[in-house]
Structure prediction request, 143 residues.
Amino acid sequence: MVSQDRCTHTLPTFIASFFNLSLSTSTVLRQWKQAWISPVAKVAVPTQHADFRPISITPVLTRIMERTVVQSYIYPAIQQPPACLTFDDQFAFRPTGSTTAAIITILHKVTHLLVNNPYFIVIATVKPSTRSGTARCWQKRLN
Prediction:
């Protein structure tokens, strides 16, 4: 039987080595990418699919790693970006970013363009940024 004292010293070292290996090789363990989607009722007596919301259950180590990467790398890069990067139209992974802010920005730019131009063409790409969004796209492609 392994003592708790031994695990207290060995386990964090083991986990840290996995984190460092993952960061240095830019890879993520397959097991850390898995999530279990569980439907949770939004109303007392659900009668249709819209009465449920998906809850993504991910491994604890995945969430710890994600939080560490976001706080250590992504937020600092956005708050003090290098001169070669611009985040004017980036709304994901920002503490103040939201869908509402993105829509307001788009409406402002379109309105400004309409003041000076009789017409223009808007080209937009939408990329799912959430696991559930990605799952829905795959589901539509497979059906």
About this structure: Residues 4-25 form the longest helix (22 residues). The two ends are 50 Å apart (CA to CA).
